[in-house]
Structures are given as C-alpha cells and as structure tokens.
Design goal:
Blueprint: H1 10-52
Length: about 55
C-alpha cells in the first residue's frame, strides 16, 4: 500500500484530486451526451436525405 501521507498539505492535495475527478467525470458525461445528440441528428439528416432521393 503506498504511503499517502502528504503532511500539512494533505487537505489541499486531496481536494485537488477530488476536483480533478469531478471535472473529468463531467467532461466525459458531457462528451457522451453531445455525441449521442450529434449521432441522432446525423441519423435524422441521413433519413431525410434518403427520403428525398
């Protein structure tokens, strides 16, 4: 088990890691949601294009 004793700065280091995890999680969730939205829009446009042709 690694030694995670950061001394007097432990609170700041722990908070920084926590904030980083939250930011990465929000970025991943936002990317997945935007991707799903773009995919749905692309499929809709493709269906409209196929209907016209």
């Amino acid at each position: 088990m690694p030694d995670l004793d950061f001394g007097k700065y432990g609170g700041f280091i722990g908070a920084a890691y926590g904030i980083s995890v939250v930011v990465f999680a929000v970025m991943i969730i936002a990317s997945l949601r935007f991707s799903a939205r773009w995919r749905a829009q692309a499929e809709k446009l493709k269906a409209e294009e196929d209907a016209i042709s």
